[in-house]
Each structure stands twice: as structure tokens, then as C-alpha cells.
Amino acid sequence: MSTSVKRPRPRKSAEPAAPAISHADQLIALQSREEGKTVMYKQDAWGHIETRFVRSQNVKAWEEKGFFVR
Known about the structure:
- By secondary structure, the chain is α+β, with helices and mostly antiparallel strands.
- Helices cover 26% and strands 20% of the residues.
- It has helices at residues 23-34, 59-64, and strands at residues 38-43, 49-54, 68-69.
- A three-stranded antiparallel β-sheet has the order 2-1-3.
């Protein structure tokens, strides 16, 4: 039977915390990312709906994947 040797690990550097964003600012950021995009949906066998925000030029490719436009 072998004996185990504990080796000290170097400590990870602490990551700075991200600044807190208000809920209103989060919604504004989300809406600006989705602006000008097409909303597409796909429903699986269990009834779960997957939502994707797609660029207009990519709609046909996403329809081929089984998604449909709202």
C-alpha cells in the first residue's frame, strides 16, 4: 500500500466582482441586443419551447433546422 503525500496548492487569484446592474438596465441591454432580429421558436417532444433571436438574413437557415417565425 502506498502512502499519500499532500502537496500544497498555489492559491487562485481572486476575480474582481462585476458591478451590480439594476433590473431596468438589464432589460435595456437585452432589448438593444435583440433589436432588429427575428424571433424564432422550436418546440420539442416534451412541449419545451426554445427561443432564438436570429438575424434577418439567417431566417431561412434556422427554418431548415426546424424553427418557425412567430
